[in-house]
Design a protein that fits this description.
The chain has about 650 residues and is an alpha/beta fold. Helices cover about 35% and strands about 15% of the residues. The strands form five sheets. It has a six-stranded mixed sheet, with helices on both faces. A hairpin with a 5-residue loop joins strand 3 and strand 4.
Length: about 650
């Protein structure tokens, strides 16, 4: 009771928060000494600006500046009376470090601007921890299809106020969700009442890079036809200058210290096949959602082409004659085939350029598959590099057939007769390419990724990879395996090879801290989820650039992050996705220009573009059949 009595009400005892009451960790002498030495200096219970910075780690939405498990380290103690206010940023939590950016998407209708804008928002939030919000210009007029200068800019002031409210607030003031609702930070009645400086820094200063993660506003139009005359559309040089002038009023306001960097992003298509694909996706979506009769697609397509031509007569592209050289802009031509940038300096703009160079709204499919059962899985041990069990090899056989038939659309041929069992069919014949005149369609050039660990390489080892005709007509080795260390399982450090029960005994603090902060806690001499998010980013950008189907055979933690990113789930929820990424299940994710419309953001509510191929029952039945045959061979009947 002595050491608990010394703890200020303002700083709840860190050990009591960390360790459940039913564990024996609190009773250990080492833990007692640790608690006593971290006793705060003051008994004053009045929240201060420092408290606001500390407690921001539990902001609504999970957008914090540092792992929650580091929070108690920022409290004042006898040994450290003036602690670090905020730890140095991790790569996955750096965000844009106090800066404000406004990204304005430009271009003709039916080029995929909205899809690319929303996908960029997901990327910046998931991999850089930036607070992002999309602002749809076409929502101002209710999405009307009429272009009229008479009704333009009626709601511009309302749009600007929403934009300003998002940009002109700090993390300490409030968190604003995608629905525009404001939620208090939970520290006192008003943060402005506590504008006490922390080590000489005003926590309300939006440009103080140690207290604010920055914000990105993404301005786009989901209906370019209706919003052409809106100034926020940026459809002419005059309107782009108007946007800069409006945003300058925020920067120059006497009540704000916010600095805003405006970037224009123009999407252009010059390839006819890309224009046809985006239009085809638009018509298919309208038919699917009941806005268009199936027998009217030809007339609707021609009508849309005429609308685009009329829009093109009025639209003014970003100029390369020197008149707009003072702007920061990016021209994205044919989805990264050619990219022109101007004044795109600093860290975040360069990351934006890199991502937009890769992403595209054309149709492509990604398959996520966890490795088959490994020897460590049978005993519940963490990490390691154990091989597959017999059950794991059964799934490898099933996966090889699925990849050949469903992903690559290959044709099977047999050189001998088998009794129908999977293990006898594989190797008894082979797989060959389907021609363009095949009734089931031609074969598809596909890609295969595995980690560098035995269990994923073995799971994919039986997948055939014949040489077929590629997209450009050249020879393509389909499903040629590529090994990426970036998609290796999370490294458990000192806990590698241990069961959860053994971790509780040998590392009680690690076990309980990870329960409290699964995404931010780093295993002793190991990794955290934030670490694997950082090393996944290069793979995600390469994945975004593909148009061919991609099968990724990896591990649970890695696939949780990839699945969460692709389905729009916040990265803070990824470690808790217990029902997703099961063994013996393949998740098919079909992406196109309409994918963003189906994102729910709820981990247990799969979007419509996700298909689950569950082979668990088939694996069990195959294992049972093998066991029966083995028993019969040991005890043959007369």
């Amino acid at each position: 009771f002595f050491w608990r009595a010394q703890v200020s009400p303002r700083y709840p005892d860190p050990c009591l928060d960390r360790f459940p009451k039913d564990t024996g960790a609190l009773r250990s002498p080492a833990c007692f000494r640790w608690c006593a030495c971290r006793r705060p200096m003051s008994n004053d219970s009045t929240p201060t600006a420092a408290d606001a910075l500390l407690r921001r780690s539990m902001d609504v939405g999970g957008e914090f500046l540092y792992p929650k498990s580091q929070q108690d380290l920022l409290s004042a103690t006898e040994l450290n009376p003036t602690p670090t206010t905020v730890p140095p940023p991790m790569a996955a939590m750096a965000g844009n470090i106090g800066e404000r950016h406004v990204l304005v998407f430009l271009g003709l209708p039916l080029v995929g601007k909205r899809t690319i804008a929303l996908r960029l928002k997901r990327y910046l939030r998931f991999f850089h921890g930036a607070k992002c919000r999309g602002f749809d210009i076409s929502a101002l007029d209710g999405g009307s299809n009429l272009m009229s200068p008479l009704d333009a800019n009626t709601h511009s002031s309302e749009f600007f106020n929403k934009l300003r409210k998002f940009l002109d607030c700090s993390d300490t003031e409030f968190h604003q969700g995608e629905d525009g609702k404001t939620t208090g930070g939970g520290v006192g009645s008003s943060p402005r009442q506590n504008r006490t400086s922390v080590n000489g820094i005003d926590p309300m200063d939006k440009n103080a890079k140690n207290v604010d993660s920055g914000r990105v506003a993404i301005v786009f139009s989901s209906n370019a036809m209706s919003s052409f005359y809106e100034n926020w559309s940026g459809s002419s040089k005059e309107r782009r200058r108007w946007i800069l002038a409006q945003l300058a009023t925020i920067s120059n306001s006497s009540k704000s210290k916010t600095r805003i960097k405006t970037i224009f992003i123009e999407v252009t298509l010059t390839k006819k096949y890309l224009e046809r694909e985006i239009l085809s996706q638009k018509l298919e979506r309208d038919v699917r959602e009941g806005r268009l009769e199936p027998n009217s697609t030809r007339e609707a397509g021609q009508e849309w082409r005429e609308k685009v031509q009329e829009y093109k007569k009025l639209y003014v592209t970003l100029q390369d004659d020197g008149s707009e050289d003072d702007l920061s802009y990016m021209k994205l031509i044919n989805y990264g085939e050619r990219v022109l940038t101007n004044r795109m300096r600093a860290y975040l703009p360069q990351r934006i350029v890199q991502f937009l160079t890769a992403t595209h709204p054309t149709k492509h499919t990604i398959y996520l598959c966890r490795h088959g059962q490994s020897e460590y899985n049978t005993t519940g041990r963490l990490g390691g590099n154990s091989p597959l069990t017999e059950q794991g090899w059964v799934f490898a056989e099933i996966l090889s057939r699925f990849a050949a038939q469903h992903v690559c659309k290959l044709k099977e041929f047999h050189s001998g007769q088998g009794d129908g069992d999977i293990e006898e069919q594989v190797g008894a014949g082979g797989w060959m390419e389907r021609g363009a005149d095949d009734e089931e369609g031609p074969s598809v050039a596909a890609r295969l990724w595995t980690s560098s660990l035995f269990r994923t390489i073995q799971t994919a080892a039986l997948i055939p990879h014949p040489v077929i005709r590629g997209p450009d007509g050249s020879a393509w080795e389909s499903m040629s395996p590529r090994v990426y260390r970036n998609i290796d399982e999370i490294f458990a450090g000192d806990c590698e090879g241990l069961t959860p029960e053994e971790v509780k005994v040998s590392h009680p603090q690690a076990s309980n801290l990870r329960k409290m902060d699964k995404i931010g806690y780093r295993y002793p001499r190991g990794e955290s989820y934030f670490d694997i998010i950082s090393r996944l980013e290069p793979c995600i950008q390469e994945m975004e650039s593909y148009t061919e189907p991609l099968l990724i055979v990896s591990h649970q933690a890695i696939l949780r992050c990839i699945f969460a990113y692709l389905t729009g789930v916040d990265r803070e929820k990824a470690p808790g996705m217990e029902t997703q990424i099961q063994q013996n299940v393949v998740y098919q994710i079909d992406l196109d220009a309409s994918s963003e419309d189906h994102i729910t953001g709820v981990a247990n509510n799969l979007p419509a573009f996700v298909t689950v191929h569950d082979f668990r029952k088939e694996v069990e039945e195959t294992m049972l059949a093998r066991t029966c045959r083995q028993l019969q061979s040991l005890d043959p009947q007369p």
